[in-house]
Design a protein that fits this description.
Elements lengths: L5 E6 L6 H18 L4 E6 L5 H8 L5 E4 L16 H7 L3 E4 L2 H6 L4 H13 L3 E6 L3 H5 L3 H12 L9 E5 L13 H19 L1 H6 L1 E5 L7 H5 L6 E4 L6 H9 L2
Parallel strand pairs: 1-2, 1-8, 2-3, 3-4, 4-5, 5-6, 6-7, 7-8
Helix pairs in contact: 1-2, 1-11, 5-7, 7-8
Length: 252
């Protein structure tokens, strides 16, 4: 089996002002420094306006900072958008693209997500590409079809294990407290790795980290992270409290 380094990623979404963000980032950085060598990577993705302050707050801790989105173009007339180049310039090393909230709220298609992922990769960022089915799709038995087509359409050419992370987020489980069973999660993750192999080759797919997102928390993290094809978590609500997020990380 290929060894994949666990990634514990926190998506803060549209939460926190300056003081909250710095306190949260500093608290996590202190725990990272106190822990010394850890066998996981920790990533936090704050709102865009907090990135600089969070980068400063975690300096020297080994933590990574990412953006929650990026534009597909390097620059231009795109009011309110953030380029991957600016994320890189601010000190980010990752960018989330295609989160279900972006796909829903901003009507982002697989093609748009792929273009954003390619833009992130071109700047040397690791693209965290989100996929996942809705409750209606799951109830209709379309879980694997939906995730397969999203992998095919959202992962750009040139993607490798070094510049790409996949995050499987069943939309119906995000922030609801509902989670699939461990067997269901493993089935989908294994399927995603197989679909990824068709796209980027079996060797790269075997090395690519696939995160589970969708109500991962301190109570269920250890069970989920123990699954063969789960290589970390993309965590929402539980990433907004130092102790909760650290407990999830310790489960790795």
């Amino acid at each position: 089996m290929t060894a994949r380094r666990t990634l514990i990623a926190g998506n803060w979404k549209m939460n926190g002002l300056s003081a909250d963000g710095v306190a949260l980032a500093s608290g996590l950085a202190d725990k990272m420094k106190a822990a010394g060598a850890v066998d996981f990577d920790m990533l936090v993705c704050p709102p865009a306006g907090l990135i600089s302050k969070v980068v400063d707050a975690v300096a020297g801790s080994g933590m990574h900072v990412g953006g929650q989105d990026c534009h597909m173009n390097e620059k231009g007339a795109h009011t309110g958008d953030t380029s991957a180049a600016l994320l890189k310039d601010l000190g980010c090393s990752y960018a989330i693209v295609g989160h279900s909230e972006r796909r829903t709220d901003h009507a982002e298609t697989d093609a748009i997500v792929a273009a954003k992922a390619a833009a992130a990769q071109a700047q040397g960022l690791i693209a965290v590409i989100c996929i996942g089915e809705t409750e209606a799709q799951r109830d209709a038995g379309q879980t694997l079809d939906v995730n397969g087509s999203q992998i095919a359409g959202s992962v750009p050419e040139g993607s490798t294990a070094a510049n790409t992370v996949i995050a499987y987020e069943p939309v119906w489980a995000i922030g609801t407290g509902r989670t699939p069973t461990s067997a269901e999660v493993q089935e989908v993750h294994a399927f995603i790795r197989g679909e990824l192999a068709k796209k980027i080759g079996a060797d790269e797919a075997a090395k690519t980290r696939i995160l589970y997102g969708g109500s991962m928390n301190p109570k269920n993290a250890a069970e989920l992270l123990a699954l063969a094809d789960v290589d970390g978590g993309l965590i929402g609500g539980a990433s907004l409290k130092v102790d909760d997020f650290w407990t999830v990380a310790q489960s790795a």
